[in-house]
Amino acid sequence: MDAGRLQVRIDRFALDDVDDACALWRDTGMWLRPSDGREQMALLLERDPDLQLAARDGAGRLVGTALGGWDGRRAYVYQLAVAPDRQRQGIASLLLEELEARFRARGALKAKLQVLRGNEASRAFFAARGYLVETDCEPWGKELVRGDAPPACRDPQAPAGLRDPLADDEGAPPSRC
Questions:
Q1: 2, 116 in Cβ contact below 8 A?
Q2: CATH fold of 4-136, please?
Q3: Fewer Cβ atoms within 10 A, N terminus or C terminus of the chain?
Q4: What is the pTM of this model?
């Protein structure tokens, strides 16, 4: 897909994009988890290759990503990011629209995503596109391997049994791919 006026093209994210994607995600303030590494990305690409999108500029540089998952019931948006020097040019909208179209083609009735607390730009972006904060449920998860969550994502006020059992008192280890 060619996005003409934006001078980007949307194509499939490939395993060769992982290193550039990790750099892009770091540049945009995303935190990286073990699932963002090469081995886990290979599994995602094997499972849903058509839902992994890359936006490239005219020189072929990776300037945006939108990764998707489909479990047969719900669709999930992951790692929607645009290079800081290309933000506010419509690239994120283009990536999200294409991903949503691919979800609908698979029969998805709903798409879900998560936004880190305090990321007001992302909250505004998704709200403007019809996404709502779901207050009738709360996200729960369990780290099966050390997850590198930044301190803002751990709730120090939570009862001990509800705190991240893999987090240490010194804070999260450095992000890695």
A1: no
A2: Aminopeptidase (3.40.630)
A3: N
A4: 0.79
